[in-house]
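Go through this chain for my students:
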Amino acid sequence: ALRAMAMAKWGQILIDSGHESDAKTTIWPLIKFDLEWVTENWDSTGCDLWEEVRSDDFFFNRMAFIYCLNAAADFADQIGESLGASYRSVADDVRAVITKHWNGNYLYESENRPDDGATIHAITTFSLDLYTPDSEEAAATIRYLVKAFCNEYPINQEDNDAGDPGILIGRYPNDSYAGGNPWQLLTAILAECFYAGATITRKKMETRGNYQLSSTENAQWMALLNLDAGATASDLAAAQVSAGDAVLTRLHNHVKADGGKIDEQIDKYTGKQASAENLTWSYANILHALHTRKGLSPDPPGPTTTTAKTTEGGPTNNPTDPTANPTDGPTDAPPQTCCSSVLFESSGAIGMSNPE
């Protein structure tokens, strides 16, 4: 599905540059070949994003199917092929079943691994009009997983105690691969999710003006970013930008000593980069987050936006269903001393100038 989506986007570039014939004769057969498998097998058992557990119902995979099928359908329409309607029909079938991944508290990845940073990646990368980065479900999922990963990684607790903004996130609680550490690519996608949410919020303001936030319709975002009653859309957008800056600031603090080299993980004890070196996926996600940030104002939050914290209580209290047994690995939780004070207020390092 991802290859078909990439080919559809490349085909569009070919069309825009005057090479429509190549798009039809070279690109379209590749898309059609890949999606023949997807349309027949989207509900079959496969691997998760990390190639570790198997299920027929991964949130990341199904969000990817919906996005890729619609992208291919648009491309098919443009070149006069007839399969666009069929692709959209299958995407609607996937959409009809993916809604069960909202459990009332957060979006879960799968029944055998509910708590996974892959859900934030899917929200940020594949949302069209379902579970968009500005949605209440997105905010609730971020709120839930941020607390889990704060508790999971001692380096987060050390940074919090020092007053450093942001958070480092990883794949899932109790991860044992290569020590089970924060991942640069997922931390970057969290920042981008905040930026994408701010972009959508500002787009809404073009038609609705600087509307006042609702304590019911915007409850999760107000709780996540500690926005008081009476806060406006402008306050929300500014706080979302600030939160993204805070996350990238923390990430930058842990990679800046390595001369631009970005690896796979950050050691959860030392804060140094670890595991696979020069990981392409890490570079891509950081650059894409910065690209999304580029179109947003670097101004700090307005006066009604306060230092944001994850809060005690509600759905964030018990990350990782103890009955889910998501993976083998250490199960002793680190001391939970500081994870009610994750700062989502930017120090300005990312907002004022991109990291070199």
Summary: Confidence is low (pLDDT under 50) at residues 300-338, 348-356. The longest helix spans residues 184-208.
